[in-house]
Amino acid sequence: MSVRRLAPDAVQPKSFAFSAENAAWAKTIISKFPEGRQASAVIPLLWRAQEQHDYWLPKAAIETVGSMLGMPTIRVLEIATFYTMFNLAPVGKRFVQVCGTTPCRLRGAEKILEICRSEIGEEKHVSADGQFSWLEVECLGACCNAPMVQINNDYYEDLTEENFRTLLADMRAGRPVKIGSQIGRTTSEPATAQSTLQDNTLYDGSAVGSWRQAFDERIQRAEAAKKQAAEEAAKAAAGGAPSGPLADTPQQPKPQNTPQPNTVTKPAMPESTAPQSPASNQAAAHTPQAGATDDAVPRKSQSKAEPFVDDGGPEAAPATLQAAREGKADDLQLIWGVGPKMEALLHSMGFYHFDQISAWSDENLRWVDRRLDGFKGRARRDDWIGQAKKLAGGWRPTGKLSDRPGQ
Ligand code: FES
Q1: Are 59 and 6 in contact (CB under 8 A)?
Q2: Range of 322's domain?
Q3: Which residues line ligand 1 (CB under 6 A)?
Q4: Same domain, 407 and 329
Q5: Ligand 1 atom nearest to CA at 139
Q6: In the chain, what is the greatest distance between 2 CA atoms, to the nearest angstrom?
Q7: Do residue 60 and residue 128 come from a single domain?
Q8: Could you tell me if residue 144 is inside a domain?
Q9: Looking at the chain, which terminus has fewer C-beta neighbours within 10 angstroms, N or C?
Q10: What residues pair up with 137 in beta bridges, in sequence order?
Q11: 0.85 cut: is pTM over it?
Q12: Please, which pLDDT band fits residue 397 given cuts at 50, 70 and 90?
């Protein structure tokens, strides 16, 4: 890899000229650069010359490109010998570049190299039938699917001794071959089953800026706690209470699970329908951490979310379930504003199905909103009832980038 020389004179052609089509293309490329900067076109021209000349660069092509760009030959040679994408000697019709870097090596690249030696021949030599040549190279950036090879312009990944031998045999026989993973996985997803990156909000752009909302909420909580502490300290001083450090009258930030003040009518919570302990306790204990992005995702409809303002209206506890019907909950994350954490919170409150949410009354909605610790007001703001009605009626998004029920 380190020493890169031009091919011996015996295989060098006497001259090189671009085809008429490539010459016209080269002219266009050169014209894109300002006067005096034509040398900037050297790499695309060398690449096109290589493509035209069976994927290797003869000395004559290097000289031709140099004269087209007004560059000394040595300057073009420096580039052609530096970048390993330029082949300086003939290669097979199928040029196999085998990744021999650590991840691929740990996953069996040694065997792939052995097969190249036995099926094709020595490295950097074209097989007798002209079909193949091979070269060991450094990481080609497909380590997740190691071991892998590049053959001409395509990657072949998840290789085993068996499937690599089959691949070479199919190519030699002119049979169609499969590009990419040879074991059927899509791109570089986990080899077993997809277990990550399943939140649709990762793909529709709505997760962008979620940190900002979490940050704003944290600041609001801190400011409210500070204000309350100052007010109580002033009250204590006015009432003749002993002045001194706040340690005498410890001030705590208002608990996040405390229902909204004064205006809230205590909900009627019949035992049969109110969220049951410990589920309700779990819900109450749910306090998102600063910086959590999970359910703090601003959706398209709420990119400039405002703090929750309680309208003080009456509330009523909705009907809840102890568990999902038939052990299978609906995918509540299909509702805008519901991510994995919010879904867990809803489950802990006794909500598992779209039809439960779609049946909420205005009072129920208020009851829920007041208990979405850290996310209060989200249910009304994102019209969960309307969304749930649509989903309960069978509507589903058609893909990761498709509409949501709120659209
Ligand atoms: S190590 Fe082989 S592709 Fe990265």
Answers
A1: yes
A2: 310-407
A3: 99, 101, 103-104, 139-143, 146, 148
A4: yes
A5: 4
A6: 106
A7: no
A8: yes
A9: N
A10: 99
A11: no
A12: confident
Per DSSP, what are the bridge partners of residue 363?
none
Quote the number of domains for the chain. 3
Instruction: Answer whether residue 283 shows pLDDT above 80.
Output: no
What would you report as the CA-atom Rg of the chain, rounded to the nearest whole angstrom? 34
Atom in ligand 1 nearest the alpha carbon of residue 102: 1
Please give the DSSP secondary-structure letter assigned to residue 253.
P
Q: Whose structure tokens read 């096109």?
A: 48
Q: Which residues pair with 155 in a beta bridge?
A: 150
Average the pLDDT over each of 79-88, 259-268, 335-344 and give the range with the smallest value: 259-268
CA pair distance 247, 381, nearest whole angstrom: 39
Question: Where a domain ends, among 82, 110, 125?
Answer: 82
Structural domain contains residue 208: no
Residue 41 belongs to domain with CATH number: 1.10.10.1590
Whether 333 maps to a domain, the answer reads yes
In ligand 1, the atom with minimum distance to the C-alpha of 101 is 1
Amino acid at 328: K
* 76 and 99 housed in the same domain: no
Tell me the CA–centroid distance for residue 21 and ligand 1, in Å.
36
My answer on whether 74 and 103 are in the same domain is no
Last residue of a domain, one of 82, 106, 122: 82
- Give me the mean pLDDT over the 305-323 stretch: 85
- Report H helices in 337-382: 340-349, 354-358, 362-369, 378-381
- CA 132 to CA 116: how far, in whole Å? 9
Assigned token pair, 64: 């031709």
Confirm whether 251 is domain-assigned.
no
Q: Is the pLDDT of residue 263 over 90?
A: no
In sequence order, the 6+-apart residues with CB closer than 8 A to the CB of 264 are 310, 312, 315, 370
Cβ atoms within 10 Å of 266's Cβ, excluding its own: 7
Residue, of 105 and 255, whose pLDDT is higher: 105
Q: Is the pLDDT of residue 328 over 70?
A: yes
In this model, does residue 207 exceed pLDDT 90?
no
Q: Find the CATH number of the domain harbouring 150.
A: 3.40.30.10
Which of 113, 140, 159, 187 to mutate to test ligand 1, by most ligand atoms within 8 A of the CB atom?
Answer: 140
pLDDT at 153 over 70: yes
Across the range 72-95, mean pLDDT stands at 96
